[in-house]
Amino acid sequence: MPFRATTARPSLTYPIIVQDDAVKGSAMFVSAKWGLIPSWQKEAGSRRPPSINARSGTNATSGMFKRAYASRRCLIPIDGYFEWRDIHGTGKDKQPYAIAMKDGSPLRAGRHLDIWRNPATGELVQTFCVVTCPPNELMATIHDRMPVILAPSDYARWIGPELDPADLMKPFPSDRMTMWKIGRKVGSPRNDTPDILDPIED
């Protein structure tokens, strides 16, 4: 999840980058909520919680994601993201890590965007989810998935009209990334101070 200015979490609204249909070849910022609600969902109170992740390899065929993947891909600019390593494989004891670019530059992560109309109010709600792929060598030491991170040369393809840019959903080169262990206070949204990024010793 992104850590620009906040310990981001699902259900919050973020700025994302989409293709500007009014001007060919250009992009623009819009706001969307993290947690994808498919456009075909009819009820506001669905028992199924919004999807926060979509796996590469299935998003082109899954009923939940295929429409958004084919026509509403987007990017989110972030400084980095957090991931948790399951220390004992039980899910009960996890160690958080911060992941970012080695040179400190921002990254652009691939997302799916969908627009859902609330049947009760008529309100249009834009939501998104994170697209994940197998991990690179760095991320494989702590987790079996990672976000799809796009190179600048691939931004236009990802948000463009191409129906299935499957070759872009691949692990980002690990030699351009860095990772460090941080304290568990990052797990609470109440802790929104810069020191959540401070490295801790093994």
TrEMBL record:
Keyword terms, alphabetized: Covalent protein-DNA linkage, DNA damage, DNA-binding, Hydrolase, Lyase, Protease
Keyword 4Fe-4S listed: no
EC top class named in words: hydrolase
Domain of life: Bacteria
InterPro entries assigned: SRAP, SRAP-like
Entry's EC annotation: 3.4.-.-
Transmembrane portions of the chain: none
Signal peptide: none
Family to which this protein belongs: Belongs to the SOS response-associated peptidase family.
Full protein name: Abasic site processing protein
